[in-house]
Write a structure and sequence with these properties.
The chain is mainly alpha-helical. The chain is built from two helices and no strands.
Length: about 60
């Protein structure tokens, strides 16, 4: 048995590169979806009545001190 590393042929390398590029595109698409979801969630939180109530309390407390 030999532990020599051998360089794959050009076809195998090209296939690997194509697979990696496709994987990177899928990852980028998923990251974009996550960014959009985070933006929607942050907007929901900002527009939440509970958040407005809490921020109102924080403002009142800082005025009273």
């Amino acid at each position: 048995m030999t532990n020599e590393l051998r360089i794959p042929d050009a076809e195998t390398r090209a296939r690997s590169v194509a697979n990696m590029r496709a994987l990177c595109k899928r990852i980028d698409a998923n990251l974009l979806e996550l960014d959009e979801l985070i933006a929607r969630l942050e907007a929901d939180i900002r527009n939440s009545p509970l958040t407005a109530y809490r921020l109102g309390l924080m403002k009142k407390e800082s005025v009273n001190t």
